[in-house]
Amino acid sequence: MKEHNRFMNELFRIVNGSLRLDIDKVRNYTSFLADKLEKEGDKFSAGRLRKMLEENDQQLRPVDLGYARALPVDAESRFPLIERVNWRAVLEAPVVLTQDQRDVVNEFLSVAKSYALLDAQGAAGSINLLMYGPPGTGKSRIARFIAKELDLELYMARLDGLISSFLGSTSKNIRALFDFAARTPCVLFLDEFDAIAKLRGDSQELGELKRVVNSFIQNLDTIGPQSIVLAATNHEDLLDSAVWRRFSYRLELNFPIAELRRQLWLQFLKPFDFREREVELLVDLSEGFTGADIEEVCQRLQRRRIVLQHDPELKDAFQILQNIGIGEGKERRFLSLIRGNDVSAIISALRDRNAKLYTSAALAGLLGVSKATAYRRTLKRDEKNG
Ligand SMILES: Nc1ncnc2c1ncn2[C@@H]1O[C@H](COP(=O)(O)OP(=O)(O)O)[C@@H](O)[C@H]1O
Ligand SMILES: [Mg+2]
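Above: query sequence and adenosine-5'-diphosphate SMILES. Below: predicted holo structure tokens.
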């Protein structure tokens, strides 16, 4: 039974393509199946399938083009609507998620993997996942992870690029995008998904816009359970409830809690030599920071190491953290409350926050002053506060 099911996903799609007379879909999935068979050691069947493709190609396309066909382009500008994300080129450590988030991703993955089985039992719904949350919390990275786990190509469409100044073209673009995904073995990733919703308020031509949103919904419906669609948005509140309902799986991402920040720091600090105690301080200081922020701190440490030729220390990380913490809309970040380099102010704020964690030794490391100085300052400050 298990053995039998392994190639059913492809077989169903090939049959579906034949019945709809969608030659491209049939060819793409046959080629994909041949690759899969070869990977699993059945060179003979793979060869036969490829031969069939070759012999029955009226357009005399080169075989080695495989299923990586031309990407769909904008109806007006001819710019590609979609971009292939080469996840194979990057070696990434696991995404850092809470248990609940991991459960959603794993369930989604197992459903996507056993589509044929579910379909045979009449239990296949659409395999759509909506990820929402602030920028830099790992949505794109999860998309890469999912494509990798399913061993499928990942195609990303930025929705803002899809929206043409000519509304008629927008509908055409949406259509072209979904047509492409329907006949290509892939994960389709709709990034900046809120662009479609934002559009509604921006324009005068409300009737026309409604049509665009509707065409989106329709396409999502008709692409059916055969394709895997991921969408990401930073503004979930902008999404239409009709659009929202189209996604059977939803994953909320947020500013990582302390335990996740610890894992993120450990992951990104790997090339350096930070002690556990120092990591603990960074975890606390980075409250309100995203995974992308933490990664940025570490990238800047790396740059300092190369340019200044010294191993980064805690005070370097603290400086960069402070620097990233500045800025509008960052009020969630505890560090944005401590501005500038007024040592007394910093000591005071940190002692207020957690006197047990921010000992004078810890403060010395953070501020890059001697232990004696930090001790004196801390003492002075604590005395003043009674
Ligand atoms: N939860 C996370 N786990 C691991 N890395 C993360 C996480 N969140 C953010 N990052 C890092 O930050 C970078 C940017 O994240 P990204 O996935 O592009 O965020 P988003 O798409 O939500 O804006 C990623 O490449 C990744 O290295
Ligand atoms: Mg992203």
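The first helix runs from residue 2 to 5.
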